[in-house]
Design a protein that fits this description.
This protein starts with a helix and ends in a 5-residue tail after the last strand. The longest helix is centred in the last third of the chain and has 14 residues. The strands form two sheets. A seven-stranded antiparallel β-sheet has the order 3-4-5-9-8-7-6. Strands 1-2-10 form a three-stranded antiparallel β-sheet. By secondary structure, it is α+β, with helices and mostly antiparallel strands. Helices cover 25% and strands 41% of the residues. The chain is globular and about 35 Å long.
Length: 154
């Protein structure tokens, strides 16, 4: 069954989505969906991609001492009781961490990336079934590396 699901999700066709002032390229398998507290949310047959935009003023008002993407990632890990104390590493213009979590009896693997842009932090979360993570990790990082920010004309 897992092999069938993984074959159905393969493909090199992509699409670019825009949310607020951020753009990201995802595989065409992702379809727009909704999730409470997510700025944008897309699902695929095997996983998900979502973005959460947090204004730095709002983060500061919540009482968190966050001065960088690294700080934000560490605060997110602590606030969400992420298992295994994942190590935050540097990517191309962002920091990231990986972890596995069981949800409703199913194990999922996550790649979470945090971007520090102007007056906001963006947290981008990719997830798939744990047994498929090695297959999807390259695609997740390609999407993470595709993130760009556009300045809106006023």
């Amino acid at each position: 069954m897992g092999m069938l699901l993984s074959l159905a999700a393969c493909g090199d066709l992509t699409k670019t989505i825009k949310s607020e002032d951020m753009k990201i390229t995802l595989s065409k398998e992702y379809q727009k969906d909704t999730l409470a507290n997510a700025t944008w949310y897309y699902t695929s047959p095997d996983g998900l991609a979502m973005g959460i935009r947090s204004l730095k003023d709002d983060v500061e008002k919540s009482g968190l001492e966050v001065n960088s993407a690294q700080d934000y990632a560490e605060a997110y890990i602590k606030a969400n009781s992420i298992p295994g104390s994942p190590q935050v590493k540097s990517g191309e213009g962002y920091v990231f961490f990986k972890y596995t979590r069981k949800v409703s009896g199913t194990e999922y693997s996550y790649l979470t990336c945090v971007y520090d842009h102007d007056d906001e932090f963006w947290l981008i979360n990719f997830a798939c079934y744990k047994e498929l993570y090695k297959e999807y990790e390259t695609e997740f990082f390609e999407s993470a590396n595709s993130v760009s920010f556009i300045e809106e004309d006023e």
